Amino acid sequence: MKSFDYQRAETVEQATTVAAGKNASFIAGGTNLLDLMKLEVLSPDVVVDINRLDLNAIEQTDDGGLRIGALVPNSKLAADARVRQHYAVLSRALLSGASGQLRNKATTGGNLLQRTRCYYFYDTASPCNKRSPGTGCSALQGQNRLHAIIGASEHCIATHPSDMAVAMQALRATVEIEQTDGHRRQVPLQDFYCLPGTTPQRENQLESGELITAVHLPAPVEDSYQAYRKVRDRASYAFALTSVAAVTQIRSGTFSHVGLSFGGIAPRPWRDTEVEAMLLGQTPSRQLFEKAADRLLEEAQGHGGNDFKIPLLKRTLVAVLSEAANFGGDA
Amino acid sequence: MSMDEPDTRRRLDDMAQGLIGKPLDRTEGHLKVSGTATYAHEWAVADQAYGVLVRAPFAKGKILSIDKAAVLAMDGVLAVIDDDRLLRNPAQGTANEAPVQGAKDVVYLGQPIALVVAESFEGARHGAQSLSIEYDADESVAIDPEASDAQTEKPDEKQFSQGDVDQAMQEAAFTVDQVYRTPGHNSAAMEPHCAIAQWEENQLTLYGSYQMLKYNRNELADSLGIDAEQVRIISRYVGGGFGSKLGIAPEAVAAAIAAKELQRAVCVTLSRQQVFEAVMRRSETRQHFQLAADKDGVLTGLSHVSLVSNLPDETFAEPVGQATHFIYGGENRRIGLEVARLNKTCAGSVRAPGEAVGVTALENAMDELAEAAGIDPLELRLLNIPEKDPEQDVSFSSRKFRQALKQGAEAFGWEKRQPVPGQVREGEWLIGMGMASAARVNVLMQSEAKVTLSADGSVIVETDMTDIGTGSYTILTQIAGEMLGVPMNRVETRLGDTDLPSASGSGGSWGASSSGSSVFLACEDLREQLCRKLDCQSADLTLKDGQAIVRNRSHDLVELLGGESLQAVGIIEPGETSENVRQATFGAHFAEVAVNATTGETRVQRMLGVFSAGRILNEKTARSQCYGGMIFGIGMALTEELLHDPRDGHIVNRDLGEYHVPVNLDVPQLDVILLDERDDHASPIQAKGIGELGICGAAAAVVNAIYNASGARVREYPATLDKILPYLD
């Protein structure tokens, strides 16, 4: 670990001001940042501690949704009665990730910004375009069981590891960002993350010094089926090989709402609006689900170790949609 | 005492204190749960400096130069050590001499090449990460043992042949001819390796985490070029070994060299990543089985030819066929071993070397033979238990193999198993049962202990035996208490210090029976000394609760001692019973699994192990070891696999986040049945090793159950979902 300056911010404005224009990292739970700093994958000059900021509340919004402060711990969010009742997919996704101890420390904002678990990203002796742009992607011809089948590029095939973000995307969440000019903007989660392209080191829309202050969930979908299906190698404490978050509603025998999001398969929580559109207004059937899955996977590409994710994702999506259809909920 | 004759006296059965075999809590348990047991890193040695080993960033070649100046100029950095005595990898178990030295010749990526020492651990780590080296990398890196150009050796002494297996295969009614593969494994002990070295003049004290101190002392002295008398090693508590701490390792030699140079104590701890890449791995194996059976399912031929790997110059080769020699009969036999020379982390003993993977693949092959012959897998095992050792004209010592299989089947409800795969479904889950035999060679090693019966009637046991979490402190206390008739809290057991008499150390499952026998023999001597005071025969002396009872008269032990302390040394040595009978432990595993019909995920639902390992000294610590073995069996079956980069061979999943040992949710209800047994040939306490038996074959029971559940026959471990998916509808 390289020596660094430590600054504790008392206000959001102070945090963004201190960090702007510098090689700085905000620290909240530190569950990922500290590991990365010990390995010298990240070597910030300044670490800005934001734990004292007033961003620890889950509040009802005027439009009937929820505003989740960036510092709300994963365990608190998962246990919140409103979340469990109206946004069950989020609670389930949170509880499927990490361990009890980590969830107590990890925060909402930090979870969104956690880094990939690509083996090569963590090994400073290996080339990695995300860590050291221009050195190459070791995973492409190396071990890539964990890696992306959709949305990757020849420069990087890493996946985004978050479960929480996958569920939030299925709920159509937006990210609230404090800019360095003191204004706040909201970015839909599906636009928040960047695809790797030729710049895998850039992972999201945050500019230098900008801080996530909250995540907004829209009003709940009534009578919805919600599921987070996470497929993994061991029963707990493992990242998703694939995951499917679903928020669906059926009225008069057809899908009247479809929110789908996929984890473990892409550089960001994956959403495919065409797949959702294919299902919307349709009568549920196995044939329809298979068509939707085939559309989702049309451009999927394996890299050897992760080829299995293509059939696995199809099977998982069809199973989740079948369950959604059986859930009914017709009014 | 040399173990030349069976000891049929079974003296422990005559004792009166009632401690042996009882499920007693660990005597040091309260220290461990309260965080006050001192592990290597926790010794508060004054004025320590901290060292961090530097990792070779390439797989093969030579270090040309190291830019020490830049790192030495960093704040707090005290030294950069690149001494020729640094170790490239740990010593193999019982090596008793220095392993390969000279860290400048690099043979695997991750090899330690230097040590950076600083005032703080953080400073040393940053220095190590910043050290720039010039090197000449050799591109001809060997990674894959099965590559067509792989360099392999076939040591003569590791090839065995009897009769004609090829002909047996031709004439057989039923055959199996299959290849099974197991990947590399990491020991994954919870406590990472650590050594704190401190010199006083030319005397070195090393606080470390090691399994076999008498060997480690010689290995360390030899590595440093000093006399063994100049070295003291202290390992009071060891946070798990599983083979990884058998031999002296790079951190110890580096700490000792640095401490000497700086005239100051130096602490070197490995990171989890370093434990993965610079400590022993279990070799990957390719195992070719050929089984030939007659129309009744009786084996007529058995061939088990394996390919394993190691670094150039390492003599250790995973002894894959070790138990194949004696578990099952069959007139025609072939057991072979080939070693590929690779540029991958050193291979050594990890969790039951040999049987953990060898019995596992054998038991998969037996499952396939049962199916081919249309015989129940349990029946097939029972049919093929040999009367005598099938290769040597010797009998078995105690062996409750048949009973373990039968009792296990009954307790588990094996008769409910559906013979045709894929018949039982609960919702999305396919349910199946599998079983496997367990076997592990039994070894007795030389071990010495001193026992003192103090004038106040308390007892002190001293030996440099280690307790690697297995229960050594507890069972040695039990044996002394039982033999001398004093309660547990009147016995103090001192372990883990080379100043004490030399023990067998922990490894190869031999620790309890070897060091336990030495304590037993010392206590027998003390009983004789008491008999002389009482003018009686040892057989007539009853010792219980501090009283000596002879001919219906009770004497207070303290009064009897009359202010005097008695002392005795016990030494056990292996003898003729190691040669003239076949000694092994046996058992049976049963598993029920659920395979997800959509995703191929497997979850073990319940497991039962039945084990026979001679006398059980402490039912609780023995059972816990069996649980541990079975849990590692679940890991081996479903998740554990060292992933190597295909270009430079380095281990890419170098932490417990990505190297998947089972977590609580992966482990269901486990049951263990310990069979009551005495092995008179094994040791004077009739005990055999049990530590490793639980893993031997356990993974096969799980994988055989996966087949029964889903029809997926996985022959490449671990049985991750990608290997099961192709078999699902």
Notes on the protein architecture:
- The complex is a heterodimer of chains A (331) and B (729).
- Chain A is of the alpha+beta class and 331 residues long.
- Helices cover 28% and strands 19% of the residues of chain A.
- Chain A has twelve helices and eleven strands.
- Chain A has helices spanning 12-19, 33-38, 74-79, 81-86, 88-95, 100-105, 108-112, 164-170, 189-192, 273-279, 286-296, 309-327; strands at residues 5-8, 24-27, 46-49, 58-60, 66-69, 174-178, 184-188, 211-217, 225-231, 242-251, 254-263.
- Chain A has a five-stranded antiparallel β-sheet with strand order 4-5-8-6-7. Chain A has a three-stranded parallel β-sheet with strand order 1-3-2, covered by helices on one side.
- Chain A starts with a strand and ends with a helix.
- With 729 residues, chain B is of the alpha+beta class.
- Among the domains of chain B are: 2-37 and 445-572, Aldehyde Oxidoreductase, domain 4 (2-Layer Sandwich), CATH 3.30.365.10; 354-443 and 580-727, 2-Layer Sandwich (Aldehyde Oxidoreductase, domain 4).
- In chain B, the strands form eight sheets. In chain B, strands 4-6-2-15-12-13-14 form a seven-stranded mixed β-sheet, with helices on both faces. In chain B, strands 8, 9, 10, 17, 18 and 19 form a six-stranded mixed β-sheet that branches.
- In chain B, a hairpin with a 2-residue loop joins strand 27 (547-550) and strand 28.
- In chain B, helix 8 (355-373) packs parallel to helix 16 and helix 11 (472-484) runs parallel beside helix 12.
- The model of chain B has no long low-confidence stretch (mean pLDDT 98).
- Chain A binds chain B through residues 1-3, 38, 40, 117, 119-120, 123-126, 138, 141-143, 145-146, 231-238, 241, 308, 311-312, 315-316, 319, and chain B through 55, 57, 75, 109, 122, 125-126, 129, 428, 598-601, 603, 638-639, 643-647, 650, 652-654, 657-658, 660, 662-666, 720-722, 725, 728.
